[in-house]
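Marked as duplicate of an earlier ticket. Keeping the data here for the record.
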Amino acid sequence: MLARFFSRLLQAPEMPLVPYELLPRAAVVRTKIEMPPEDVWLTKRMHDLDICSRAQAEKMLSAGMIKVNGQRVWINQKVDENSVIEIASRKDTNTKLFPIPESVKIWKFYKPADFTTTLVDPYKRKTIYHYLDTTKFPRIEVFPIGQLDYHSEGLVLLTNSKDLAEATEFSFSSLLRKYEARINGRIKQRLIDEICTGILCGGKKFRPMHIWAPKKDSKSKNVWVNAALTRSHPRELRSIFERKHMHVNRLIRTSYGPYKLSGLKPGEFVETQIHLKLHKLLFNYYKVKSLKE
C-alpha cells in the first residue's frame, strides 16, 4: 500500500509556482480618527515640536524671547494648534528681540573708597549696602555689576536682577573697563610695554593689560596711568606695581562697558537705561544656562 501511495505521488501533475507579489493579501484599512483640538501649555507645545525642552522653554519665557501670535509672553500659557510661536534669533540686534522685563532696573553708582561690594564682608568692613542705607536709594535688593576691591573707587553698576548681574560674570562677557591709577614712583616705557604684552613678574605671569599715556602730576611725585581691562581684575594691576616696588595710592574705574562715570561724585547714584550690550549678555546667559540643565 505504501508503494502504491508513492507511485501516485510521482504521477501527480506538477503545480505551477505563483510569484509572491500575486499571492492574495489581507486588505489593510487605515482610518484617521479626527481628535478634537485641545489647548496645551506653550512649553509642552514647544517640546512636542522638538524646539527645546520644557526647562529651556521656561528660561526663554522668563527672558521674554517668545512671541505667540505676535504678542510677547513672559509666563506659560495655553495655546492651540493654530497658534504661531516665534523665538528671538541670536543674530538680531534689535533690543526688542533681546528683551529684559520692565521690572529690571539699573543704576550707576560711584563707589567711595574703603567700602566692599560684597553683601557680607568676612573682615567686618563696611560694604556699599551700609552706605546705601544712609542715602535715599530705593529700599530694594540690588546686586553689583563689576565689583571693586576695598580700596578702589569709581563706577559700579547696581541692578535688581540677579540674572543680569551673573550674566556679566560669564566667560562670554568681555565688557571693557577703564581705570585711572595714581602711582607713587617713576614708570618707564619699557615697563608699560611689558604689561601690555603680558609681564612675568615675581614668578607670576600676568595677562596682557592695555596701559597708555602716563601723565605726571606736577604737584607731586605721583604718576597717573590709564588702563583698559577686559579679563583682568584691577587687583592684578595693583599687584604688578607692588612687585615693582611702586604703590598704587588711588585706583578709579571711569567706565564699565557702555556706561561712564560722567561727572558723578563719590557716593552719588543715578538710574539709567539698560544698554543693548546688556540685553545681549542676558540673552546669551539664558541660552548657556538652559543648555547646562
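See parent ticket for discussion. The helical segments are 2-11, 42-48, 54-62, 128-132, 162-167, 189-197, 234-243, 276-292.
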